[in-house]
């Protein structure tokens, strides 16, 4: 069985890391997996980058900028990502078809990687894993409380638009025409929340929608001695350490940096120190009350494993998450998670069992959760439960077997149609 996994990047961002982990896990089980990306940043020979020639390579570096050009007409747009996906200046679909795969597994394909209409040119059956809302909206990746995707978009709040026939309606209609040509495409929601959203959407209402999560290597992300971990990072041994981190941790409004800052105003424990990764130390300090360790950007799993094991809890105050890997990675290392109880976090964190789910978006309750998890009477059992939750539900072997079974079912259905 030959599988092609498609993602814009190979190791930058949560979707890339998830797609790459699935690719490697499939290979470990003897599946002929091929990964195709627009920009390859690793040196893994099993990952292919499709730009051929100097022009294509240069174009790949700026395509995400070119893809955003239509947004210049919307002066009141928000800072959340919106992808028109209108560029078709590459041969990625030709490269996919040249491999002649049994199944093509799409992940995050924006940033100018694939024009919407080109999806219909893929010859093999398609599985599409949803890492955010983009596939079933008129272009936004983070929809928050907007439900226009259940109709036909338009008057897009992310664009700051008041016109029905705006860019979101245009992109929505392009997707509608394209998806109609792909009636057997299978949609995979990583969490129950996004699976339910996909089923409600106009664009995927007539498609098969399933729910299989991201795999995580629980043999790699595993607990080890906290004192040793702290010594590696030169953290104090006698403090309560609270970790927060993500790509663009302090600048991406969706990651909840402002909510964390507000929640910490309710805490006065002199024993608490903060650890932040995904952002360098700012000129102006936001957390005056607490000593903060800024670690910058981390990309390798070994650093993350030692980091998760060095702290007492991880806080994930995001406004929306599909299935945050920071939470699954931390809990696999036996580190409890505090988050708002909504969206994809509900699949991971069990309230007062593996962490604490605060009322969305009650910053005081988020602070209460941090205090509760740091209580010595709670922490040991939370740690054991956290590890068990991930091993039982998200470990690579278990999850990858589910994907293999899905591919086999698709191949069988495809043979029956021939």
Automatic annotation (TrEMBL):
Domain Glycosyl transferase family stretches: 236-379
This protein's UniProt keywords: Transferase
Stretches assigned to the Glycosyltransferase subfamily 4-like N-terminal domain: 12-219
Keyword Transport applies: no
Superkingdom classification of source: Bacteria
One Pfam family matching this protein: Glyco_transf_4
GO MF term set: glycosyltransferase activity
PANTHER family hit by this protein: SULFOQUINOVOSYL TRANSFERASE SQD2
Protein name stated in the entry: Glycosyltransferase
Source species: Flavobacterium pectinovorum
């Amino acid at each position: 069985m030959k599988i092609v996994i498609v993602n814009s990047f190979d190791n930058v961002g949560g979707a890339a890391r998830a797609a790459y982990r699935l690719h490697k896990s499939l290979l470990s089980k003897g599946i002929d997996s091929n990964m195709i990306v627009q920009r390859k940043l690793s040196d893994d020979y099993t990952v292919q980058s499709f730009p051929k020639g100097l022009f294509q390579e240069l174009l790949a570096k700026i395509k995400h900028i070119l893809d955003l050009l239509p947004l210049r007409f919307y002066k009141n747009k928000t800072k959340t990502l919106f992808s028109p996906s209108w560029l078709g200046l590459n041969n990625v679909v030709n490269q996919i078809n040249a491999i002649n795969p049994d199944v093509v597994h799409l992940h995050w394909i924006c940033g100018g990687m694939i024009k919407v209409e080109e999806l219909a040119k893929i010859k093999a059956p398609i599985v599409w894993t949803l890492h955010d809302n983009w596939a079933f909206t008129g272009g936004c990746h983070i929809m928050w409380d907007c439900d226009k995707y259940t109709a036909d978009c338009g008057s897009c709040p992310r664009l700051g638009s008041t016109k029905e026939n705006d860019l979101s309606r245009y992109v929505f209609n392009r997707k509608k025409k394209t998806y109609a040509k792909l009636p057997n495409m299978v949609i995979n929601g990583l969490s129950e929340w996004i699976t339910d959203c996909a089923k409600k959407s106009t664009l995927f209402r007539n498609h098969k929608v399933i729910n299989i999560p991201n795999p995580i290597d629980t043999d790699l992300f595993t607990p080890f001695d906290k004192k040793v971990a702290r010594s590696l990072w030169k953290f104090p041994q006698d403090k309560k350490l609270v970790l927060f981190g993500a790509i663009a941790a302090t600048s991406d409004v969706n990651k909840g940096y402002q909510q964390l800052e507000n929640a910490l105003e309710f805490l006065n424990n002199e024993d608490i120190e903060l650890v932040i990764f995904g952002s360098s130390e700012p000129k102006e300090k936001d957390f005056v009350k607490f000593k903060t360790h800024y670690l910058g950007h981390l990309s390798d799993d070994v650093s993350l494993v030692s980091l998760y094991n060095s702290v007492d809890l991880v806080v994930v105050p995001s406004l929306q998450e599909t299935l945050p890997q920071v939470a699954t990675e931390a809990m696999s290392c036996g580190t409890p998670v505090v988050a708002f109880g909504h969206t994809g976090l509900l699949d991971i964190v069990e309230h007062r069992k593996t962490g604490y789910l605060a009322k969305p978006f009650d910053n005081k309750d988020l602070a209460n959760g941090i205090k509760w998890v740091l209580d010595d009477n709670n922490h040991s059992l939370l740690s054991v439960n956290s590890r068990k939750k991930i091993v039982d539900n998200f470990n690579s072997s278990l999850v990858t077997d589910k994907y293999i079974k899905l591919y086999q079912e698709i191949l069988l259905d495809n043979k029956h149609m021939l």
